Amino acid sequence: ALRGHRGWEKQWTSPEPRAEYDVVIIGGGGHGLGAAYYLAKEHGITNVAVIEKGWLGGGNTGRNTTIIRSNYLYEESMHIYEHSMKLWEGLSQELNYNVMYSPRGVMMLSHNIHDQQSFKRHIHANRLYGIDNEWLTPEQAKAYCPPLDISASARYPINGAALQRRGGTARHDAVAWGYARAASDRGVHIIQNCEVTGIRRGPDGRVTGVETSRGFIGAKKVAVSAAGHTTTIMKMADVRVPLQSSPLQALVSEPLKPIFPCVVMSNTVHAYISQSDKGELVIGAGTDQYNSYSQTGGLQIITHTLDAICELFPMFRRVKMMRQWGGIVDNTPDRSAIQSKTPVPGLYVNCGWGTGGFKATPGSANLFAHLIARDEPHKFNAGLTLERFRTGRLIDEAAAAAVAH
Ligand code: FAD
Asked: Using CA positions, which residue lies closest to atom 44 of ligand 1?
Protein backbone atom coordinates (compact mmCIF):
# COMPACT_ATOMS: atom_id res chain seq x y z
CA ALA A 1 0.00 0.00 0.00
CA LEU A 2 2.90 2.35 0.74
CA ARG A 3 3.98 1.93 -2.89
CA GLY A 4 0.51 2.87 -4.10
CA HIS A 5 -0.16 -0.76 -5.00
CA ARG A 6 2.43 -0.55 -7.78
CA GLY A 7 5.24 -2.94 -8.52
CA TRP A 8 3.66 -6.04 -6.97
CA GLU A 9 5.17 -9.22 -8.33
CA LYS A 10 2.72 -11.78 -9.64
CA GLN A 11 2.74 -14.76 -7.30
CA TRP A 12 2.29 -17.32 -10.03
CA THR A 13 2.45 -17.18 -13.80
CA SER A 14 -0.66 -17.63 -15.97
CA PRO A 15 0.72 -19.28 -19.12
CA GLU A 16 -1.16 -20.39 -22.21
CA PRO A 17 -1.98 -24.09 -21.90
CA ARG A 18 0.43 -26.53 -23.56
CA ALA A 19 -0.90 -29.07 -26.06
CA GLU A 20 -0.23 -31.89 -23.60
CA TYR A 21 0.79 -32.43 -19.99
CA ASP A 22 1.93 -35.48 -18.06
CA VAL A 23 -0.74 -34.71 -15.48
CA VAL A 24 -3.78 -32.43 -15.60
CA ILE A 25 -5.39 -31.73 -12.23
CA ILE A 26 -8.99 -30.51 -12.38
CA GLY A 27 -9.72 -28.07 -9.54
CA GLY A 28 -7.62 -25.21 -8.18
CA GLY A 29 -8.52 -25.60 -4.53
CA GLY A 30 -5.98 -26.39 -1.82
CA HIS A 31 -6.09 -30.13 -2.56
CA GLY A 32 -5.48 -29.79 -6.31
CA LEU A 33 -2.80 -27.09 -6.01
CA GLY A 34 -1.11 -28.99 -3.18
CA ALA A 35 -1.07 -32.20 -5.21
CA ALA A 36 0.60 -30.31 -8.09
CA TYR A 37 3.21 -28.95 -5.68
CA TYR A 38 4.03 -32.37 -4.23
CA LEU A 39 4.09 -33.97 -7.72
CA ALA A 40 6.79 -31.47 -8.66
CA LYS A 41 8.66 -31.47 -5.38
CA GLU A 42 8.56 -35.09 -4.27
CA HIS A 43 8.16 -36.97 -7.56
CA GLY A 44 9.96 -34.71 -10.05
CA ILE A 45 6.86 -34.45 -12.26
CA THR A 46 6.68 -30.82 -13.36
CA ASN A 47 4.84 -31.07 -16.69
CA VAL A 48 1.61 -30.52 -14.78
CA ALA A 49 -1.37 -28.17 -15.19
CA VAL A 50 -3.96 -27.25 -12.60
CA ILE A 51 -7.16 -26.24 -14.37
CA GLU A 52 -9.61 -24.10 -12.45
CA LYS A 53 -12.95 -22.92 -13.76
CA GLY A 54 -12.98 -19.80 -11.58
CA TRP A 55 -10.28 -18.32 -9.37
CA LEU A 56 -7.86 -20.19 -7.12
CA GLY A 57 -9.41 -21.07 -3.79
CA GLY A 58 -12.85 -19.83 -4.91
CA GLY A 59 -14.42 -23.18 -4.02
CA ASN A 60 -14.60 -24.66 -0.53
CA THR A 61 -10.98 -23.79 0.19
CA GLY A 62 -11.84 -20.11 0.43
CA ARG A 63 -15.24 -20.66 2.05
CA ASN A 64 -14.58 -22.84 5.04
CA THR A 65 -14.17 -22.16 8.75
CA THR A 66 -10.60 -23.57 8.75
CA ILE A 67 -10.86 -25.92 11.72
CA ILE A 68 -7.86 -28.25 11.89
CA ARG A 69 -7.68 -31.34 14.08
CA SER A 70 -6.72 -35.00 13.80
CA ASN A 71 -8.74 -36.69 16.58
CA TYR A 72 -10.81 -38.98 14.35
CA LEU A 73 -11.84 -42.48 15.41
CA TYR A 74 -10.58 -45.03 12.92
CA GLU A 75 -7.01 -45.95 12.11
CA GLU A 76 -7.28 -44.92 8.45
CA SER A 77 -8.58 -41.46 9.35
CA MET A 78 -6.20 -40.91 12.24
CA HIS A 79 -3.21 -41.66 10.03
CA ILE A 80 -4.29 -39.35 7.26
CA TYR A 81 -5.36 -36.42 9.46
CA GLU A 82 -2.29 -36.73 11.69
CA HIS A 83 -0.08 -36.83 8.58
CA SER A 84 -1.82 -33.63 7.57
CA MET A 85 -1.43 -32.05 11.01
CA LYS A 86 2.32 -32.68 10.93
CA LEU A 87 2.51 -31.01 7.51
CA TRP A 88 0.47 -28.04 8.80
CA GLU A 89 2.99 -27.57 11.58
CA GLY A 90 5.79 -26.83 9.08
CA LEU A 91 3.77 -25.55 6.11
CA SER A 92 4.61 -21.83 6.37
CA GLN A 93 8.32 -22.70 6.34
CA GLU A 94 7.89 -25.32 3.61
CA LEU A 95 6.13 -22.88 1.27
CA ASN A 96 7.87 -19.74 2.54
CA TYR A 97 4.33 -18.37 2.78
CA ASN A 98 2.59 -17.49 6.00
CA VAL A 99 -0.46 -19.76 6.13
CA MET A 100 -1.11 -18.48 9.66
CA TYR A 101 -1.46 -21.93 11.17
CA SER A 102 -2.60 -21.29 14.72
CA PRO A 103 -2.68 -24.32 17.06
CA ARG A 104 -4.98 -22.68 19.58
CA GLY A 105 -6.81 -25.86 20.55
CA VAL A 106 -10.09 -27.38 19.34
CA MET A 107 -12.60 -28.15 22.07
CA MET A 108 -15.61 -30.37 21.36
CA LEU A 109 -18.42 -29.91 23.85
CA SER A 110 -20.28 -32.81 25.42
CA HIS A 111 -23.90 -32.22 26.44
CA ASN A 112 -25.16 -35.70 27.29
CA ILE A 113 -24.04 -39.19 28.19
CA HIS A 114 -23.92 -40.24 24.55
CA ASP A 115 -21.51 -37.39 23.69
CA GLN A 116 -19.41 -38.26 26.71
CA GLN A 117 -19.12 -41.94 25.83
CA SER A 118 -18.37 -41.17 22.21
CA PHE A 119 -15.69 -38.55 22.98
CA LYS A 120 -14.03 -40.75 25.57
CA ARG A 121 -13.90 -43.56 23.03
CA HIS A 122 -12.20 -41.18 20.62
CA ILE A 123 -9.76 -40.03 23.31
CA HIS A 124 -8.73 -43.60 24.14
CA ALA A 125 -8.40 -44.55 20.47
CA ASN A 126 -6.39 -41.41 19.68
CA ARG A 127 -4.01 -41.95 22.58
CA LEU A 128 -3.26 -45.48 21.41
CA TYR A 129 -1.98 -43.89 18.21
CA GLY A 130 -0.04 -41.16 19.98
CA ILE A 131 -2.51 -38.43 19.01
CA ASP A 132 -3.26 -35.85 21.69
CA ASN A 133 -6.85 -35.61 22.91
CA GLU A 134 -7.96 -35.15 26.48
CA TRP A 135 -11.12 -35.04 28.58
CA LEU A 136 -12.01 -31.82 30.43
CA THR A 137 -14.55 -31.22 33.17
CA PRO A 138 -17.02 -28.37 32.58
CA GLU A 139 -14.92 -26.13 34.87
CA GLN A 140 -11.75 -26.95 32.92
CA ALA A 141 -13.60 -26.25 29.68
CA LYS A 142 -14.68 -22.85 31.00
CA ALA A 143 -11.12 -22.08 32.12
CA TYR A 144 -9.93 -22.88 28.57
CA CYS A 145 -12.69 -20.83 26.96
CA PRO A 146 -14.03 -18.17 29.38
CA PRO A 147 -17.04 -17.00 27.28
CA LEU A 148 -18.57 -20.50 27.58
CA ASP A 149 -21.74 -20.82 29.69
CA ILE A 150 -21.45 -23.96 31.84
CA SER A 151 -24.38 -23.20 34.13
CA ALA A 152 -26.75 -26.05 34.96
CA SER A 153 -29.68 -23.91 33.86
CA ALA A 154 -28.44 -23.76 30.26
CA ARG A 155 -30.83 -25.32 27.77
CA TYR A 156 -28.27 -28.02 26.90
CA PRO A 157 -25.95 -28.09 29.93
CA ILE A 158 -22.32 -29.04 29.31
CA ASN A 159 -21.04 -32.16 31.06
CA GLY A 160 -17.47 -32.03 29.77
CA ALA A 161 -15.41 -31.59 26.63
CA ALA A 162 -12.74 -33.24 24.52
CA LEU A 163 -9.77 -31.01 23.78
CA GLN A 164 -7.10 -31.42 21.15
CA ARG A 165 -4.55 -28.76 22.06
CA ARG A 166 -2.59 -29.08 18.80
CA GLY A 167 -5.75 -28.42 16.77
CA GLY A 168 -6.55 -24.93 15.55
CA THR A 169 -7.04 -22.84 12.44
CA ALA A 170 -5.15 -21.51 9.40
CA ARG A 171 -5.70 -18.81 6.81
CA HIS A 172 -7.69 -20.52 4.04
CA ASP A 173 -6.79 -18.55 0.93
CA ALA A 174 -3.13 -18.33 1.94
CA VAL A 175 -3.05 -22.11 1.68
CA ALA A 176 -4.25 -21.99 -1.94
CA TRP A 177 -1.95 -19.09 -2.82
CA GLY A 178 1.07 -20.59 -1.04
CA TYR A 179 0.75 -23.91 -2.84
CA ALA A 180 0.06 -22.12 -6.15
CA ARG A 181 3.17 -19.97 -5.88
CA ALA A 182 5.38 -22.87 -4.82
CA ALA A 183 4.02 -25.12 -7.60
CA SER A 184 4.36 -22.38 -10.22
CA ASP A 185 7.97 -21.80 -9.12
CA ARG A 186 8.62 -25.47 -9.90
CA GLY A 187 7.16 -25.22 -13.40
CA VAL A 188 3.52 -26.19 -12.84
CA HIS A 189 1.03 -24.33 -15.06
CA ILE A 190 -1.82 -22.67 -13.19
CA ILE A 191 -4.72 -22.09 -15.58
CA GLN A 192 -7.65 -20.13 -14.17
CA ASN A 193 -10.99 -19.22 -15.75
CA CYS A 194 -10.91 -22.48 -17.70
CA GLU A 195 -13.77 -24.91 -17.17
CA VAL A 196 -13.39 -28.61 -17.89
CA THR A 197 -16.40 -29.67 -19.96
CA GLY A 198 -15.41 -33.18 -20.99
CA ILE A 199 -12.92 -36.00 -20.46
CA ARG A 200 -11.62 -37.53 -23.67
CA ARG A 201 -10.64 -41.19 -23.85
CA GLY A 202 -8.78 -43.23 -26.47
CA PRO A 203 -9.94 -46.45 -28.18
CA ASP A 204 -8.45 -48.49 -25.30
CA GLY A 205 -10.52 -46.48 -22.79
CA ARG A 206 -7.52 -44.65 -21.34
CA VAL A 207 -7.81 -40.89 -20.77
CA THR A 208 -6.15 -38.74 -23.40
CA GLY A 209 -7.04 -35.28 -22.09
CA VAL A 210 -9.77 -32.84 -21.19
CA GLU A 211 -12.14 -30.66 -23.18
CA THR A 212 -12.20 -27.19 -21.73
CA SER A 213 -13.71 -23.77 -22.34
CA ARG A 214 -10.29 -22.92 -23.84
CA GLY A 215 -10.10 -25.97 -26.09
CA PHE A 216 -8.74 -29.49 -25.80
CA ILE A 217 -5.77 -30.07 -23.47
CA GLY A 218 -4.02 -33.42 -23.76
CA ALA A 219 -2.98 -35.36 -20.66
CA LYS A 220 -1.41 -38.73 -19.92
CA LYS A 221 -3.09 -38.67 -16.53
CA VAL A 222 -6.12 -36.72 -15.31
CA ALA A 223 -6.67 -36.18 -11.59
CA VAL A 224 -10.04 -34.87 -10.41
CA SER A 225 -9.97 -32.79 -7.23
CA ALA A 226 -13.17 -30.78 -7.56
CA ALA A 227 -14.98 -31.26 -4.22
CA GLY A 228 -18.72 -30.49 -4.69
CA HIS A 229 -18.51 -30.85 -8.48
CA THR A 230 -16.88 -34.28 -8.51
CA THR A 231 -19.93 -36.23 -9.66
CA THR A 232 -20.56 -33.95 -12.64
CA ILE A 233 -16.94 -34.26 -13.75
CA MET A 234 -16.69 -38.01 -13.19
CA LYS A 235 -19.86 -38.43 -15.22
CA MET A 236 -17.90 -37.07 -18.18
CA ALA A 237 -15.85 -40.30 -17.99
CA ASP A 238 -18.90 -42.47 -17.23
CA VAL A 239 -17.75 -43.12 -13.66
CA ARG A 240 -20.35 -43.04 -10.88
CA VAL A 241 -19.14 -41.88 -7.47
CA PRO A 242 -21.18 -42.36 -4.27
CA LEU A 243 -21.39 -38.70 -3.34
CA GLN A 244 -24.12 -36.26 -2.46
CA SER A 245 -23.44 -32.55 -2.91
CA SER A 246 -25.15 -30.08 -0.61
CA PRO A 247 -24.68 -26.51 0.57
CA LEU A 248 -22.81 -25.79 3.80
CA GLN A 249 -22.84 -22.29 5.21
CA ALA A 250 -20.67 -20.08 7.37
CA LEU A 251 -20.95 -16.52 8.62
CA VAL A 252 -18.84 -13.90 10.35
CA SER A 253 -19.66 -11.22 12.89
CA GLU A 254 -18.53 -7.64 13.15
CA PRO A 255 -14.92 -7.48 14.42
CA LEU A 256 -14.43 -7.68 18.19
CA LYS A 257 -11.38 -7.28 20.38
CA PRO A 258 -9.67 -10.62 21.13
CA ILE A 259 -12.16 -12.52 23.26
CA PHE A 260 -12.32 -16.07 21.98
CA PRO A 261 -9.07 -17.98 22.53
CA CYS A 262 -9.72 -21.33 20.87
CA VAL A 263 -12.07 -23.24 18.56
CA VAL A 264 -15.27 -24.66 20.06
CA MET A 265 -17.56 -27.17 18.40
CA SER A 266 -20.81 -28.66 19.61
CA ASN A 267 -22.27 -31.61 17.74
CA THR A 268 -25.42 -31.66 19.82
CA VAL A 269 -26.56 -28.07 19.43
CA HIS A 270 -24.74 -27.98 16.12
CA ALA A 271 -22.47 -24.99 15.85
CA TYR A 272 -18.76 -24.23 15.73
CA ILE A 273 -16.96 -21.00 16.36
CA SER A 274 -13.54 -19.33 16.50
CA GLN A 275 -12.26 -15.78 16.20
CA SER A 276 -10.25 -14.64 13.20
CA ASP A 277 -7.15 -12.48 13.44
CA LYS A 278 -9.29 -9.61 12.14
CA GLY A 279 -11.52 -10.04 15.19
CA GLU A 280 -14.56 -11.50 13.46
CA LEU A 281 -16.32 -14.43 15.08
CA VAL A 282 -16.23 -17.18 12.45
CA ILE A 283 -19.29 -19.38 12.81
CA GLY A 284 -20.17 -22.54 10.91
CA ALA A 285 -23.55 -24.11 10.33
CA GLY A 286 -24.79 -27.53 9.31
CA THR A 287 -25.48 -28.77 5.79
CA ASP A 288 -28.79 -28.06 4.13
CA GLN A 289 -31.09 -31.06 4.11
CA TYR A 290 -31.39 -31.15 0.35
CA ASN A 291 -28.84 -31.65 -2.41
CA SER A 292 -27.96 -28.59 -4.43
CA TYR A 293 -25.15 -26.82 -6.25
CA SER A 294 -26.09 -23.41 -4.89
CA GLN A 295 -23.35 -21.67 -2.92
CA THR A 296 -25.87 -20.05 -0.56
CA GLY A 297 -28.03 -22.32 1.62
CA GLY A 298 -31.28 -21.98 3.60
CA LEU A 299 -31.89 -19.13 6.06
CA GLN A 300 -33.36 -21.44 8.71
CA ILE A 301 -30.03 -23.31 8.93
CA ILE A 302 -28.07 -20.24 9.99
CA THR A 303 -30.75 -18.90 12.32
CA HIS A 304 -30.67 -22.29 14.07
CA THR A 305 -26.88 -22.06 14.30
CA LEU A 306 -27.05 -18.59 15.82
CA ASP A 307 -29.62 -19.80 18.36
CA ALA A 308 -27.11 -22.46 19.35
CA ILE A 309 -24.22 -19.97 19.59
CA CYS A 310 -26.34 -17.66 21.79
CA GLU A 311 -27.17 -20.60 24.09
CA LEU A 312 -23.51 -21.55 24.46
CA PHE A 313 -22.17 -17.99 24.69
CA PRO A 314 -24.92 -15.66 25.96
CA MET A 315 -22.50 -12.71 25.84
CA PHE A 316 -22.64 -12.82 22.01
CA ARG A 317 -26.40 -12.19 21.87
CA ARG A 318 -25.99 -8.58 20.76
CA VAL A 319 -23.18 -9.13 18.28
CA LYS A 320 -24.10 -8.29 14.68
CA MET A 321 -23.47 -10.69 11.84
CA MET A 322 -21.73 -9.15 8.83
CA ARG A 323 -21.49 -11.71 6.03
CA GLN A 324 -22.81 -15.17 5.17
CA TRP A 325 -21.90 -17.53 2.34
CA GLY A 326 -22.07 -21.18 1.34
CA GLY A 327 -19.93 -23.83 -0.28
CA ILE A 328 -20.86 -27.15 -1.90
CA VAL A 329 -19.68 -30.13 0.08
CA ASP A 330 -19.27 -33.66 -1.28
CA ASN A 331 -20.37 -36.24 1.27
CA THR A 332 -19.82 -39.99 1.04
CA PRO A 333 -22.09 -42.49 2.80
CA ASP A 334 -19.43 -43.30 5.42
CA ARG A 335 -18.24 -39.68 5.75
CA SER A 336 -14.68 -40.63 4.79
CA ALA A 337 -12.88 -39.44 1.67
CA ILE A 338 -12.20 -41.27 -1.58
CA GLN A 339 -8.69 -41.05 -2.99
CA SER A 340 -8.43 -43.68 -5.59
CA LYS A 341 -7.68 -44.94 -9.05
CA THR A 342 -10.86 -45.42 -11.07
CA PRO A 343 -12.08 -48.01 -13.58
CA VAL A 344 -10.82 -45.64 -16.33
CA PRO A 345 -7.05 -46.05 -16.84
CA GLY A 346 -5.20 -42.80 -16.19
CA LEU A 347 -8.09 -41.22 -14.26
CA TYR A 348 -7.71 -40.58 -10.51
CA VAL A 349 -10.13 -39.03 -8.06
CA ASN A 350 -9.75 -37.20 -4.77
CA CYS A 351 -13.11 -36.32 -3.23
CA GLY A 352 -15.58 -36.96 -0.44
CA TRP A 353 -13.83 -34.73 2.07
CA GLY A 354 -17.26 -33.26 2.60
CA THR A 355 -17.61 -30.81 5.44
CA GLY A 356 -14.17 -31.49 6.91
CA GLY A 357 -11.47 -31.53 4.25
CA PHE A 358 -9.70 -28.23 4.85
CA LYS A 359 -7.72 -29.77 7.69
CA ALA A 360 -6.75 -32.59 5.34
CA THR A 361 -5.40 -30.27 2.64
CA PRO A 362 -1.64 -30.83 3.00
CA GLY A 363 -1.95 -34.52 3.85
CA SER A 364 -4.47 -35.26 1.14
CA ALA A 365 -2.46 -33.35 -1.47
CA ASN A 366 0.71 -35.13 -0.47
CA LEU A 367 -0.88 -38.59 -0.63
CA PHE A 368 -2.83 -37.88 -3.83
CA ALA A 369 0.44 -36.88 -5.53
CA HIS A 370 1.91 -40.21 -4.42
CA LEU A 371 -1.04 -42.10 -5.93
CA ILE A 372 -0.88 -40.22 -9.23
CA ALA A 373 2.90 -40.46 -9.59
CA ARG A 374 3.33 -44.11 -8.61
CA ASP A 375 0.00 -45.45 -9.73
CA GLU A 376 -0.40 -47.05 -6.34
CA PRO A 377 -1.56 -45.68 -3.00
CA HIS A 378 0.58 -44.73 -0.02
CA LYS A 379 -0.15 -46.88 3.04
CA PHE A 380 -2.06 -43.93 4.56
CA ASN A 381 -4.55 -43.55 1.70
CA ALA A 382 -4.74 -47.23 0.78
CA GLY A 383 -8.12 -47.58 2.52
CA LEU A 384 -9.78 -44.65 0.75
CA THR A 385 -10.81 -46.69 -2.28
CA LEU A 386 -13.89 -46.44 -4.45
CA GLU A 387 -14.29 -50.22 -4.13
CA ARG A 388 -15.06 -50.03 -0.41
CA PHE A 389 -18.64 -49.06 -1.23
CA ARG A 390 -18.95 -52.36 -3.11
CA THR A 391 -17.05 -54.57 -0.68
CA GLY A 392 -18.52 -52.97 2.45
CA ARG A 393 -15.12 -52.18 4.01
CA LEU A 394 -16.34 -48.77 5.09
CA ILE A 395 -14.58 -46.24 7.34
CA ASP A 396 -17.54 -45.01 9.32
CA GLU A 397 -16.56 -41.59 10.62
CA ALA A 398 -20.13 -40.30 10.92
CA ALA A 399 -19.70 -39.82 14.68
CA ALA A 400 -16.33 -38.06 14.46
CA ALA A 401 -17.71 -35.93 11.70
CA ALA A 402 -21.08 -35.21 13.30
CA VAL A 403 -20.88 -31.45 13.19
CA ALA A 404 -18.25 -32.47 10.79
CA HIS A 405 -15.25 -30.24 10.94
P1 FAD B 1 -12.31 -26.77 -3.49
O2 FAD B 1 -11.57 -25.72 -2.76
O3 FAD B 1 -13.80 -26.65 -3.57
O4 FAD B 1 -11.68 -26.82 -4.94
C5 FAD B 1 -12.30 -27.49 -6.03
C6 FAD B 1 -12.18 -26.58 -7.21
O7 FAD B 1 -12.65 -27.26 -8.37
C8 FAD B 1 -13.04 -25.32 -7.09
O9 FAD B 1 -12.19 -24.17 -7.05
C10 FAD B 1 -13.93 -25.35 -8.32
O11 FAD B 1 -14.15 -24.08 -8.90
C12 FAD B 1 -13.13 -26.27 -9.24
N13 FAD B 1 -13.96 -26.90 -10.29
C14 FAD B 1 -15.18 -27.49 -10.13
N15 FAD B 1 -15.64 -27.91 -11.32
C16 FAD B 1 -14.68 -27.60 -12.23
C17 FAD B 1 -14.57 -27.78 -13.64
N18 FAD B 1 -15.55 -28.36 -14.36
N19 FAD B 1 -13.46 -27.32 -14.27
C20 FAD B 1 -12.45 -26.72 -13.57
N21 FAD B 1 -12.51 -26.52 -12.24
C22 FAD B 1 -13.61 -26.96 -11.58
N23 FAD B 1 -13.13 -28.38 6.49
C24 FAD B 1 -12.35 -28.41 7.61
O25 FAD B 1 -11.44 -29.23 7.72
N26 FAD B 1 -12.58 -27.55 8.63
C27 FAD B 1 -13.61 -26.66 8.62
O28 FAD B 1 -13.79 -25.90 9.57
C29 FAD B 1 -14.45 -26.65 7.49
N30 FAD B 1 -15.50 -25.79 7.44
C31 FAD B 1 -16.24 -25.68 6.30
C32 FAD B 1 -17.22 -24.70 6.25
C33 FAD B 1 -17.90 -24.48 5.07
C34 FAD B 1 -18.94 -23.40 5.01
C35 FAD B 1 -17.61 -25.26 3.92
C36 FAD B 1 -18.33 -25.04 2.62
C37 FAD B 1 -16.65 -26.28 3.98
C38 FAD B 1 -15.96 -26.50 5.17
N39 FAD B 1 -14.94 -27.46 5.27
C40 FAD B 1 -14.16 -27.52 6.40
C41 FAD B 1 -14.67 -28.38 4.16
C42 FAD B 1 -13.50 -27.90 3.31
O43 FAD B 1 -13.72 -26.56 2.91
C44 FAD B 1 -13.32 -28.76 2.06
O45 FAD B 1 -13.36 -30.13 2.38
C46 FAD B 1 -11.98 -28.48 1.39
O47 FAD B 1 -11.70 -27.10 1.38
C48 FAD B 1 -12.01 -29.00 -0.02
O49 FAD B 1 -10.89 -28.51 -0.72
P50 FAD B 1 -10.71 -28.87 -2.24
O51 FAD B 1 -9.44 -28.27 -2.69
O52 FAD B 1 -10.91 -30.33 -2.42
O53 FAD B 1 -11.99 -28.22 -2.93
From this structure: 357
